[in-house]
Design a protein that fits this description.
- The protein has helices at 12-24, 29-35, 39-42, 61-73, 76-84, 118-137, 161-169, 187-194, 214-228, 236-239, 247-253, 279-285, 287-306, 313-327, 345-357, 389-394, 414-433, 437-445, 451-461, 479-500, 508-525, 535-547; strands spanning 44-47, 50-53, 111-112, 115-116, 150-154, 178-182, 202-207, 240-244, 260-262, 332-337, 375-377, 401-406, 469-474.
- By secondary structure, it is of the alpha/beta class.
- It has 4 domains: 8-73 and 307-404 and 469-500, Glucose-6-phosphate isomerase like protein, domain 1 (Rossmann fold); 103-291, Rossmann fold (3-Layer(aba) Sandwich), CATH 3.40.50.10490; 434-467, no CATH class; 508-547.
- The strands form 3 sheets. Strands 1-2-13-12-10-11 form a 6-stranded mixed sheet, with helices on both faces. A 5-stranded parallel sheet has the order 6-5-7-8-9, sandwiched between helices.
- Strand 10 (332-337), helix 15 and strand 11 (375-377) form a beta-alpha-beta unit.
- It starts with 11 loop residues before the first helix and ends with a helix.
- Bound molecules: glucose-6-phosphate (G6Q).
- Residues 156-159, 208-210, 213, 216, 268-270, 355, 507, 510 line the site of glucose-6-phosphate (G6Q).
- The site of glucose-6-phosphate has 15 residues, from loops.
Length: 548
């Protein structure tokens, strides 16, 4: 059964939230804390190794109840059941959305077209496990009899960002294999990667759900030619494997079917790191760590599926986005991990969130008259404090931010970790409290400057505060906790899409890019200049061709 289609702005709770917003908007967070001594307890969720404090957000317990009422009115519960049970909720592509089935237990049953897909999921997992073990142990040898030292993942978008982010984030857990990622069709990218590689000891993993993507196929073909300069064609089977739904095209590329790790069309690219797309993760971290990542995600799935909305981390987090995006009219959200390991996390979530919810047509096919998809950005702290935090503190825009921190560091340097985390706590506190005129004056009074200078400087040094943050504190960065964190954002995306009444799982905007480049490429490669473009594009093409 299809997802329901309800314009959220026509619900009773939306109207109620609108009037409630007028009462909350002028209030300072400090005031919200003063009036409710139980605020932290009311607005914090503790679950497993996660402690999520929502209390530094510009809402109250009452707001949360009203937002939950909105979720009830659009029947979020029914949508969650359909999501997990394999209904065709990606209706524009006619597919189920079942990345959750990839991390579920062996004895679960999930049906697609009347067939339980779990046995096949486990068959692929077994294949990933066996292959990983033979490559990591050195049992799998290259054509000249040497064990592998390097793995190169060739893929783009969903076939790159997830595995690249996880391998980088969990580098502490890595084995001896060096893992590289080639994604951009920019020929300099793959050349930089292969220039120091020995083809005799390198394994190439070509990842493409469709096996039609221009960037991936170009890189795969160029890398294959580079490889064949040193080794014969028969060596391909030892050095090239593929992950795809399109087995025929993989075979046509020259890879044996035995070396294909299949995936299903009910796994969206940007949600596919849990599938065979995660092969590079498994190779790089070992199968056990890959499995633990899946275990973590499965735990978050259960939390999301079964917890009441008032204690449900992804649900509350999604409702807050609706609150800021549609009532406060905030346009962006920052994600600030206080660990260098999560350096690529923001980029990864940019795809997940913006590709899923950047839509302007609702589930009835009508253009919508409210805002959807938030703009996501962010970099690790403390580096970002020395870069863009100025704008969050004193700029004119409201930017709700998720602060992700860990109680333990991986190498255990307590002194550094305390410094890192004191910044984490200090920033969220300062963003909330700001700095009043009196506080600034007191500070200025301690300085050896004239009264006039003090007066002049005063307005620039005042911080209004009232900047919302969510503190996500996790015990330690492990494959399991990272799995939970990623799944948390995946479910947040789902909830937002349900409430905004959009289809989150197609990506026609990405596909447009794939089509457009093809036709222009033909022109760049031919001598004729077609006149089918606007004059700006026409001249740019001419200028490029005349000068290269
Ligand atoms: C993800 C998108 C997109 C996709 C890439 C690569 O959800 O669909 O980023 O992953 O375009 O596609 P292939 O895996 O088919 O090469």
């Amino acid at each position: 059964m299809a997802l329901k289609s309800i314009n959220p702005t026509t619900t009773e709770s939306w109207g109620a939230l609108q009037s409630h917003f007028e009462t909350i908007k002028p209030k300072h967070l400090k005031e919200l804390f003063e009036v409710n001594p139980n605020r932290v307890k009311d607005l914090t969720v503790e679950w497993e190794d996660f402690y999520v404090d929502f209390s530094k957000n510009r809402f109250t317990k009452e707001t949360l109840s009203m937002l939950i009422e909105l979720a009830n009115e659009v029947d979020l519960k029914d949508a969650i059941t359909k999501y997990f049970e394999g209904e065709i909720i990606n209706a524009t592509e006619g597919r189920a959305v079942l990345h959750t089935a990839l991390r579920t237990n062996n004895d679960d049953e999930v049906f697609v077209d009347g067939k339980n897909v779990i046995p096949e999921v486990f068959e692929v997992k077994q294949k990933i496990k066996n292959f990983t073990q033979s490559v990591v142990s050195g049992e799998h040898k290259g054509f000249t009899g040497k064990p592998m030292t390097d793995v190169v993942n060739i893929g783009i978008g969903g076939s790159d960002l997830g595995p690249a982010m996880v391998v980088d984030s969990l580098q502490y857990y890595k084995n001896h294999l060096s893992t590289h990622f080639v994604s951009n069709v920019d020929g300099d990218h793959y050349n930089e990667v292969v220039k120091n590689l020995n083809p005799e000891t390198t394994l190439f993993v070509i990842v493409s759900k469709t096996f039609t993507t221009q960037e991936t196929l170009s890189n795969a073909n160029s890398i294959k030619s580079w490889f064949l300069k040193s080794l014969p064609n028969e060596a391909i089977s030892k050095h090239f494997v593929a992950v795809s739904t399109n087995i025929e095209s993989v075979k046509a590329f020259g890879i044996d079917e035995a070396n294909v790790f299949p995936m299903k069309d009910w796994v969206g690219g940007r949600f596919s790191l849990w599938s065979a797309v995660g092969l590079s993760i498994s190779l790089s971290l070992g199968y056990e760590n890959f499995e633990n990542l899946l275990v973590g995600a499965n735990k978050m799935d259960e939390h999301f599926r079964t917890s009441e909305f008032e204690n449900n981390i992804p649900v509350i987090s999604a409702l807050l986005t609706i609150w800021y995006n549609n009532f406060f009219k905030a346009e962006s959200e920052a994600i600030i991990p206080y660990t260098q390991y999560l350096n690529q996390f923001g980029t990864y979530l940019q795809q997940g969130i913006m590709e899923s919810n950047g839509k302007y047509v609702d589930r009835n096919g009508n253009a919508i008259n409210y805002q959807t998809g938030t703009i996501i950005w962010g970099e690790p702290g403390t580096n970002s404090q020395h870069a863009f935090f100025q704008l969050i503190h004193q700029g004119t825009k409201l930017i709700p931010a998720d602060f992700i921190g860990f109680i333990e560091s991986l190498y255990g340097n307590k002194d550094h970790h305390d410094k890192l985390m004191s910044n984490y706590f200090a920033q969220t506190e300062a963003l909330m409290n700001g700095k009043t005129k009196d506080e600034v004056l007191e500070e200025l009074n301690g300085q050896d400057i004239s009264e006039e200078q003090k007066k002049r400087l005063l307005p620039y040094k005042v911080f209004k505060g009232n900047k919302p943050t969510t503190s996500i504190l996790i015990k330690k960065l492990t494959p399991e906790s990272l799995g939970k964190l990623i799944a948390m954002y995946e479910h947040k995306i789902f909830v937002q899409g349900i409430i905004w009444n959009i289809y989150s799982y197609d990506q026609f905007g990405v596909e447009l890019g794939k089509q457009l480049a093809k036709s222009i490429l033909n022109e760049l490669k031919s001598d004729d200049n077609t006149e089918n473009h606007d004059s700006s594009t026409q001249n740019l093409l001419k200028f490029y061709k005349n000068n290269c």
